[in-house]
Design goal:
The structure holds two protein chains of two kinds. By secondary structure, chain A is of the alpha/beta class. Helices cover about 40% and strands about 25% of the residues of chain A. Classes of the chains: A alpha/beta, B mainly alpha. At the A-B interface, helix 2, helix 3, helix 4 and helix 5 of A face helix 8, helix 9, helix 10 and helix 11 of B.
């Protein structure tokens, strides 16, 4: 299997705190890879580093066979990594449809002049964006909420809308930061279905998640972080029986 | 089937009728206002239309992109001084070299001045934008406020060592507006009727305001407009959508400023005189109030806000004194003071009862 994302030796300091210490991650194309660890282990920091939100002190980054430097979020997205946020960051005043349409931004080209003159090409692009966004809303099961203002959607729906918006950027890798946080049991089941469907449609998924049953159920491999260090890598079954992991989660006993 | 077609046809023609009626009433508006209130009120109307252009420009920056700008009037000033310098005797009188270059005097056509004014204002918009890219909200407001004051103070003091702006005395004898051989300074003889100059100006400014509206609407419903609103709502999330937020913010500054630049050029041509006094912080605040009060980010609301706030003070000017006379038999509070009190009170009341503006976006949440 090809490697889509290959990150090695990432270090990140916050003042004196060693938030990430030589962390690496390997995401094969077409898989679902989970990144887990206790609170404060550095999962979100790692996520923010590879998506360009924080600069790293060191690290090698390869995506889709090319080196990349995660210096700006926009460039990382343009390269094909789309992310969601742990604390939902939708465009609150926009409708669900408009949120997804914004996601189409980096794969469309209309400039100021085109927008003002509204040429045929621009109209066609605009129509394509609208159709694609509608299709994505249906894909994540939000078709009937297209005209709802994002801020008025329920929590579970907002999480799904964030996924639809990320998918609109045509990513090769979908990076989800705790997508199940705050969801009830039914919503989690639906989310699991959605993630499997997205993977089935050829996308690769990187997942940070607290919910152990979700992660164990759908991930092909797991990386476990604790105190900014990788303590285990392997299939869910291997990781579950790893004494280091048990110690990190449950203490020394 | 045929019935449905008829309904559709009827619907279209109904919309056409409404549009036609709107255009017709706008065309006869100056005649009605002129007949009732005289030239003074047509002039107020002309200025209201200029304010519409200004407010629409500021709305791109504040309403769409969410960048609070308290120095917006500086771009208006740049436009006004562009035309003042390019179409008045000032430069040829101050500089012999320029006088030698243009023996007939500097008389730039207004369209050229509009182009230069828009480009100059857009350039300054970017100059303001670059150092403030990482600022938001109140911090940005302070920097833009300072920028507005810097421009005004420069205009006020650039009469020494070289006399570029003629300082606080301002520049006078600016050419009047002339387009396609039609002078907007004297009435136009159409054979049957005479169209007074102020009415001509009205039509010109109306055209400009409509053009500005169309540009704003098209930008809003485009990839660009969505990117602006995304930045306003959540800058990090906007970046995560692959939006180059730096370029988009600079674009908002440049486009907003160019609107003000064009409005400034026409202002100078209309007035025939410019001085730094017209471009104080107060003017920036008035334009911002138009945007916020009308319905921030919502184009029809912004237009309404601009017209109301441009006309309301003039209405007060006319009624404050007579009402006091009628009620108390004498003038208790000076009209000018009372006028400003009522104006301020009206702003407060509107913001209390319509916090999202008089004409807010349909479906906008009230939270």
């Amino acid at each position: 299997m090809n490697t889509l994302l290959d990150v090695a030796n990432v270090s990140k300091f916050f003042g004196g705190v060693h938030a990430l210490d030589n962390v690496g991650l390997n995401v094969p194309t077409g898989s679902i890879v989970g990144l887990i660890g206790p609170n404060g282990a550095g999962k979100t920091t790692f996520f923010n580093v590879i998506t360009g939100l924080y600069p790293a002190e060191s690290g090698q980054f390869q995506f889709n066979g090319k080196n990349y430097l995660p210096h700006s979020i926009a460039q990382v997205t343009q390269a094909g990594i789309a992310r969601t946020f742990q604390n939902i960051r939708l465009f609150g005043a926009m409708t669900a449809l408009e949120n997804v349409m914004v996601g189409c931004h980096c794969r469309s080209h209309t400039g100021v002049f085109g927008a003002v003159m509204r040429t045929n090409r621009v109209q066609r692009e605009e129509r394509d964006i609208r159709e694609k966004s509608f299709a994505l809303l249906h894909y994540v099961g939000l078709g009937e909420f297209a005209d709802h203002t994002a801020i008025n959607l329920s929590y579970g729906h907002q999480r799904r809308l964030e996924i639809a918006r990320a998918l609109a950027t045509d990513p090769l890798l979908l990076a989800l930061d705790e997508p199940a946080a705050g969801m009830n049991a039914t919503e989690k089941l639906d989310l699991r279905e959605l993630l499997l469907k997205i993977r089935g449609d050829g996308k690769t998924i990187l997942l940070i998640e607290h919910d152990v049953s979700l992660v164990m159920g759908i991930c092909d491999s797991l990386t476990v972080l604790d105190y900014g260090k990788t303590i285990a890598v392997g299939s869910p079954r291997e990781v579950r029986n790893n004494p280091e992991v048990i110690r990190a989660y449950l203490g020394n006993g | 089937m045929a019935n449905g077609f008829l309904i559709v046809l009827n619907f279209i023609s109904q919309r056409r009728m409404v549009l036609l009626l709107a255009i017709l009433s706008l065309l006869i508006l100056p005649w009605c206002i002129g007949a009732v209130g005289g030239n003074y009120w047509v002039r107020v109307l002309d200025f209201a239309l200029l304010y519409v252009v200004l407010a629409l420009g500021l709305n791109v920056v504040v309403g769409f992109a969410g960048l609070l700008d308290l120095g917006f009037i500086a771009f208006y000033a740049l436009g006004a001084y562009t035309f003042a310098l390019l179409a008045s005797p000032h430069l040829t009188q101050s500089f012999t070299a320029i006088a030698a270059l243009f023996p007939a005097g500097l008389h730039s056509p207004i369209w050229l001045a509009c182009l230069i004014g828009a480009l100059l204002a857009a350039t300054f918009g970017i100059i303001l934008g670059v150092p403030t890219l990482k600022l938001r909200g109140d911090y940005l407001a302070i920097v833009t406020l300072g920028f507005g004051e810097i421009i005004r103070i420069f205009l006020n003091n650039l009469d020494r060592p070289i006399n570029l702006t003629n300082g606080p005395k301002g520049i006078r004898a600016i050419d009047s507006i002339e387009l396609f051989g039609i002078s907007f300074a004297k009435s136009l003889d159409l054979g049957l009727i005479q169209v007074p100059a102020l009415y001509l100006i009205f039509y010109l400014f109306l055209f400009l305001a409509c053009l500005a509206t169309v540009i704003c609407m098209r930008l809003q419903n485009s990839r660009i407009g969505r990117a602006w609103v995304a930045i306003r709502e959540d800058e990090v999330a906007a970046q995560a959508m692959g939006i180059n937020t730096r370029n988009m913010k600079l674009l908002a500054f440049a486009i907003g400023a160019s609107f003000a630049g064009v409005a400034g050029v026409l202002f100078a041509g209309f007035q025939g005189f410019v001085s730094p006094e017209s471009f104080t912080l107060w003017e920036s605040i008035v334009v911002l109030a138009m945007v916020v009060l009308g319905g921030i980010g919502h184009i029809p609301g912004v237009i309404l806000g601009a017209i109301l706030l441009a006309i309301f003070p003039e209405v007060l000017r006319g009624v404050v004194q007579p009402i006091q006379h009628a009620l108390f038999g004498q003038v208790i509070v000076d009209a000018e003071i009372l006028r400003q009190l009522i104006y301020g009170l009206a702003l407060i009341l509107i913001m209390l009862y319509r916090p999202k503006g008089i004409w807010q976006k349909r479906g906008a949440s009230t939270s």
